[in-house]
Amino acid sequence: MGLFNRKQRLSLITFAVFYFSLFFFCRSNSARDPGSFFFQPREGYRPSYTLQRIHESLNFLSRFNQTAAPSELSAHRNDPSVQHADICIGIVTVKRPLQQKIETTVASIVDNLSQAQRSTLAIHVLFAQTTPSTHPSYTQPWVSNALDRALTYDHFNDTDISYLRRLERSKKFFAEKSLIDYRLSLQSCLDYTDAPYFLMLEDDVVAQRSWYLTTRQAIDRIETWQKRSLLSDWLYLRLFYTEKFLGWNAEHWREYFAWSLLVVVAVASLALSTRRVTRSTHDLLSNSFLLVLCFLCVPLLILLYFASGRVTVQQPMKPGIHFMNRHGCCSQALLFPRDQISRVMTYLQKMEDQSKPKPVDTTLERFANEFEIDRLAISPPQMQHIGAASYKEDEKKWRKGEYPVQGAHGVWSMQFETAYESVSADGVVVDTLWP
Ligand SMILES: *[C@@H]1O[C@H](CO)[C@@H](O)[C@H](O)[C@H]1NC(C)=O
């Protein structure tokens, strides 16, 4: 340290103390950011709001769960062949190895709705088992009381049950079967409702309390933007996403590098000009001190910035509606405008017949990329993935995990857990369109 005078040594020690405090602050501040170096799964995947929602919605559904449910609770259904609705909700459900979550999904969709609001929804659930009675929920009383349509393969004319049975037997054909099921679910909404929007949910999501109002508001906004030509063709509005894929992106390394360089250059020039202008800083800002400043202190700060994770430091998902043409994952909750549906169905059918079909989310992204259609996402997410284990995962994976909510092991939204703590029943304001 003979290199430095007393003033410089003091500055470096101050920096070290400051840096250490900052480091520990960032470490705890980024514990929940999956894109951060400081991510701690135990913190990041801890469910809180989700547990509340599961609990309260199941409580609500249990009132439907009797053979004679009170009539004011029952689904709006006077059985015309085409039901009038604003949103048709299509859910495909299969039997899961540990626990069924479809109850929670349906319950959390309806539990805070008025009768008038409920009557604007058509809820169609496809029990996608060739023998539906093997699905533990199929015979429960709430199914006929809370759903507008409980579907099985028998409801569709053109399904080949023996072929589906073959797909069902082997997990190798999981993707193909999931494409067929998704298409049939869309088909039901298309044929039996006049709804202008289709909300396709997986059977293991939970909705936030005021998802209905927020989503209606978002739809209104989108329609306004379309009228004003601020928005053209869009494929879907995403009601669930995970922050996992929104972090720093290797493709953008040049941009990150350039910014970092710019910061170093800026600090260096600031220090040099200060030294020239202010005589009294001469003994502090010596050449060797500047070297340490620019090539050690500043890079350390930049490193900390990146280590903290993009979602934490840049907060890219401000409340509102965002374009999400890339890095949107997965297909847990997507709202489609009706006029896209026939195109989507044709594409799904084409992909089913390919030798190696991809799962639904990949197929939809391919479709949108091929036809260059925008995809939107609403922030904060309206749904959380509570992740029922599926037979396509290996057993080891779904047996482990410290939280009762299984989705809490990857496909998970951190924002969902904190976003609704202080939100009033009117929902979140969604009148901003983010690039
Ligand atoms: C509905 O009732 C059945 C028994 O009739 C029970 O097994 C099931 O857990 C109940 N489900 C809910 C959501 O209350």
Automatic annotation (TrEMBL):
One of its GO terms (molecular function) is glycosyltransferase activity. InterPro entries: PGAP4. GO terms for cellular component: Golgi membrane. Keywords: Membrane, Transmembrane, Transmembrane helix. This is Integral membrane protein. The chain crosses the membrane at residues 256-272, 284-307. One of its GO terms (biological process) is GPI anchor biosynthetic process. CDD domains: PGAP4-like_fungal. The keyword Membrane applies.
